Automatic annotation (TrEMBL):
NCBIfam families: antiphage_deaminase (NF041025). This is CMP/dCMP-type deaminase domain-containing protein. PANTHER family: DEOXYCYTIDYLATE DEAMINASE, DEOXYCYTIDYLATE DEAMINASE-RELATED. One of its GO terms (cellular component) is cytoplasm. One of its GO terms (molecular function) is dCMP deaminase activity. Residues 233-439 form the CMP/dCMP-type deaminase domain. InterPro entries: APOBEC/CMP_deaminase_Zn-bd, CMP_dCMP_dom, Cytidine_deaminase-like, dCMP_deaminase-rel, P-loop_NTPase. Keywords: Hydrolase, Metal-binding, Zinc. Belongs to the cytidine and deoxycytidylate deaminase family.
Amino acid sequence: MITGENEKPELIIGLVGPAGVRLGDVSEVLIEYLKLFSYSAESIRVSKLLEHYHGYDKSKIGDDEGGRIIYCQDVALDFRRELKEGAAPALAAIAEIRRIRAAASGSPDRPRIAHAYILDQLKHPREVELLRQVYGSAFVLIAGHEPKTKRGESLAKRCAPDPTKSKNSHYVGLAVKIIEDDENQSVDPKFGQNTRDTYPLADFFIDLTNEGGEKAVERFVRLLFGHPFETPYQREYAMHQAWSASLRSSDYNRQVGAVIVKHEYEPRSPALRDLSIVATGMNEIPRAGGGLYWRDVSGDPRDQALEEKGDDRAKDIKTSVLTELLGRIESAGLLKEGGKQTDDIAKELLKKLDGTQFMNIGEFSRPVHAEMAALIDSARRGVAVQDFSMYVTTFPCHNCAKHIIAAGLKQVVYLEPYPKSRAQFLHNEEIVSEAPEGATYQDKVAFIAYTGVAPRQFQRLFSMDARGKKRGISKKEWEEKKSLLLPLYVMENVSASYFRNERHVLKSLPESVYKWDKKSLCPD
């Protein structure tokens, strides 16, 4: 839709990426490219807002960059703990948005026309959840990716007093700690920093390893404003098919989908020409006679149906294994527990082992994993998969990885990381776990992080219902009149609802914990 300048709604753009990723570059490109659509934009450093938290003590930071980053990670943890809210920094960002808006427009409840707030950066899944609840379609999340080795080197250089000392074990160690705590601050799984689970919630994924990152940002903005000729890339189509397959799964722990694709290349060229999907899989219970169970078959014996009857077979096996282990320890005279039976001890202990490697062992689960289901699907139909590729919504576990290797697949493109996987550790000689986009190797399988439009945004960004001729604008007109365009599915009056949402959620941000002018920014 073409609109008048006074009708352009605000946008809230979140950024997420693991420690060491150059998200500042993404912010700069966004600011410049949004100008083409007559949007102004500014970046809000979420870590900078922590200075308003009452527990922030500048004297504890020190002079080095590594110490500053670690201190900010710890302060953010304290902030979340005190509010008992994983989204505490996002609440601070909402308060800052209202402050900036009030300064520019005269009221925190008067929208800034054609303006975008870039939140750099989000570190907890609850932050994304809250921002989507508050802003709806006006909020989008962009994720940036770079290999861990490159990020580690970059952080070590930032931590060191000068680049020549960046290989010093002290600064390398600081970089490792920052990256590990950023991925998952294990000291407090509920309120600690958790980029690992925040990253896959993004609407768009960008590889910042090379110069392609800038073009990717530009493409996302074009899509957001309804470019009439932007259609999915091959990898986006394949991942969307994998994601769609995942929705068939009944596994409430993690729905996973996978597809195997055959790439076709231009003659005498590495350039992709086409792809065809040859097999599909999802994690689900196998059915005798071949295939997996569907919901509409009689006598559904999938895990949820069995557990309703108190039949949890994976848990029973783990209890048995633990009982056997405790029995051996007891017979060696190493266990004294006041006359309790070892099976009773095992049942009590099992409750306290949630999240441990022992409980995450997948060998005793009943579902076929999505990757294996896709391989079996191809085998049942006699389709060879040598040198083909797999697109999967989650990084494969070590068990699936070894079968992927044996099947002869050349590359695996994954959407979500899976920290429980031991694939790299067990098969270091056979896989490259952070291979660059499009990479293939003669003697190794390339595992590649997905880039492009998130499957969850496919309908919004690729449907022609709100762009092209149905929007009353051609590609030529779009180029000529893009400064007058509205972002897709962001209503002109959307601010009326999210102003109420802002005020409502900010009730849980007390001035005794976070310094802000509640009276003027959230008047009664």
